[in-house]
Amino acid sequence: MFGLILRECKTAQLGSSFFSQMKYSLIHKAKKYKKILFVAGVLFLLFLIARSITSRPAVQYSDVRGNVATAKANKEINKEFLFSLKDAKDKEISKIKFLVENAELRDEIIVKGQKATSIKGRTFFIINLKITNEHSSAIEINTRDYLRLAVGDNNEWFAPDIHNDPVEVQAISTKPTRVGFPIDDIRTKFRIQIGEIAEDKEVIEFEF
């Protein structure tokens, strides 16, 4: 009888130990799976975030700059002049290259960053220039002092009303600029007088 009870107790202990081991194993596996699922969830979330960032359309910026009408007439000139660069004692220290590129007739121009439009019956006569400074220091030049315009057979010489003076040209560099004249909107003969104020002038005559 005692032996039977002892065997039953051992059997009960073995059964209890087995179930305890099974329970521990299941809990351990559950924790392990939770960790795996957590890591997988984090990786999936990171994947979705990265995909949403890379799939966003590129930001597009609209060009809000205004357009200026093209020249309605153009005449190539491409003539270069040399003018003296003098110091305070009126001594020549270098030469200024003064390139007259072309002349244009325009109904629209930009003046101080703003669009200017000619009124009916009027237009803008524009002369495009390039000033080259070969001196080792920056200079300032009043381009309107070097050009005059006569329209048709008229011998009245007009100074530019449109300009960027004083034009600053850095040392050993070239600066594009322009001068302009408001004129009647006619296609006729034009004469440009070019030269220093107190020196001889050269006259270029042409029609558009």
From TrEMBL:
Highest taxon in the source lineage: Bacteria
UniProt keyword terms in alphabetical order: Membrane, Transmembrane, Transmembrane helix
UniProt key word Membrane: yes
UniProt protein name: DUF4352 domain-containing protein
Segments passing through the bilayer: 36-53
Keyword Transmembrane helix: yes
